[in-house]
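Why do we bother with a discrete structure alphabet at all? Because it lets us treat a fold like text: something you can write down, compare, and reason about line by line. To make this less abstract, here is a complete entry for histidine kinase. Read it the way you would read a sentence in a foreign language you are learning: slowly, and without expecting to understand everything at once.
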Amino acid sequence: MKLTAREKSELLGEGIVTVILLLLLNLSILVLATEIIRSNPGLESGIFQIKESITIGPNNYRVWSYQNFFIFFMAIVDVWVVYWRLMRRYKQMQLRHIIGELHYIADGHFDHRIPFTLKGDHQRVVDSVNALVDSVIESMNEERKIEQSKDELITNVSHDLRTPLTSIIGYLGLIENQQYKNEDDVLKYTHTAFLKAEQMKSLVEDLFEYTKVRQASTKMTFNQISVEPMLEQLAASFELEAEKKGMEIDAKATPKNIKIEGDSEKLGRLFNNLISNALKYAKGGKHINLEATQKGDQIIFKVSNDGEQIPEKSLKHLFERFYRVESSRSKATGGTGLGLAIAQSIVELHHGKISVTSSEKLTSFKVELPVTQKSTKDAN
């Protein structure tokens, strides 16, 4: 830490004043001791005998006066006192600098850190302050991200609800105002309004599920799940829908008897979303493969299809809320844009990872989950 000219002057003045006071104190003690010794002949005689019996060095040099002992002793004490006083004042100056830096940071300069290096407790204070500021900045940035995320969520939900709601009001308005030619028109309008209402219901359900799995207090019920029967059941539940699209679903686990610890309801939702995603967007695809392979303490799940390739620029955005590969936010494919975001949240609740790769031949979602969870108890 660099001292200012004023602080250097303060230290110099402190040293000079301390030396003067110590010299006056030493002189006073010396005069007082001399008077006491001279007024007491017995004490003076005893000191003389001690002086004669003490020799120093090879030449047996005798200490000629007790004053020499006093001056030598007091010189050591004085040096220590001066050093202690100067170091005490120097540390006060260090503390003053630290307080000044704190006020500067508190005035809103949150990108500033205390730059100087000290020793001992003051350095620990500096390190703690810098660490605290870093933590506060990180919390503030996280809070901003949360607020921005909430704003984006509200904007996206408003957009996706407004579109079908406008259609519902429009078609029901035609019926309300009797702007139809015959009963077939009424059925057509009500059917369209019904489909739009279903679309809104799907969005609300997905939104509810997304907010539920994103909460830190999400309840998790972990139990042992046989992997192959789970995959076979998932394949069977989508078999009819796949046939309508001219696709086949195959399920396979290696080895066949592997088990995983997880929340069966949420894992079901995870793979439902991935399979639904494949059925909706695998244009031109003929096969959907569900695979599970155990590698050490991890189970690798893959949901793959041979449909249309996902553009490279879209891969890194797939797990973002409301993101769709289509350039517009139309609902031609019936998706809400929340399915993969929900899938990612469920994977994170199981302490796993999810990723996606896509080529001209194969698009594959890979889910890595631990065989056992950190806690087998219900988690809140």
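What the structure line is telling us, in plain words: Confidence is low (pLDDT under 50) at residues 376-380. The two ends are 50 Å apart (CA to CA).
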